[in-house]
Amino acid sequence: MKEKLYTIPLNDAVNENDECPFCFIERKLEQDMINFVLGSSSSYMESDIREQTDKIGFCRTHMKKMFDYGNTLGNSLILKTHYQKLQKEFQEQIKHFTPGKVSLADRLRKQSSGNNSIAAWAAQKDCSCYVCNGLQENFDRYMETFFYMYTKDSAFHDKIVNGKGFCLHHFGLLCENADRYLNEKQKAAFYPEVFALMEQNLHRLEEDISWLIDKFDYRNKDADWKTSKDALQRGMQKLRGGYPADPVFKAQ
Ligand SMILES: [Zn+2]
Ligand SMILES: [Zn+2]
Fold it and tell me: Structure pTM?
């Protein structure tokens, strides 16, 4: 049953009850992708995969994660043919390049014209990433599954509304997708529920961080930590997503 492919990991993520189930899903998908790219299956030895990584490349974040993961030979093989492809593209770019014209007004305002073709090409490379693409594709399926379960599975719905909410990054994506997957009646119920959930949980984080600060006061030295011991990493996650305290992900 294909549905289980997404419902089971989504349920696991919700049962984890950390600051954001989508962060949990995203971390798992990212690690799966990095394992796929550089791990023991040696996907980089397959010509169809290499053709894609040659063309798409990797963003800065994932280059760093690939470096940290290890596998110097695998990384180098991937880079070598990507370089070959990139240099060909660069030659084409040079052939068609003319410097952009900057008007006198822009020059006075110290602004660029924004139409330099090499700058645009290089900027596009920055956000072209094989790992991001794979992640995005699967992540979208989880969003769809989330709304399917939220509307059809009352146990799932209850866990969400009694849970810790979402990080702000994924909450934004959730709202965007709610407009797509919910009908008007469902939206009328969904938004007040998740807004209240986010309000409560942003406030909870603020209090956890406040108590963490108070713990630095020598008078509170022996006081109970309550839920504040890891408030900093959770407070950062709640704002931008991800797990700041995670160890580096390395090849097993
Ligand atoms: Zn998140
Ligand atoms: Zn990436």
Answer: 0.92
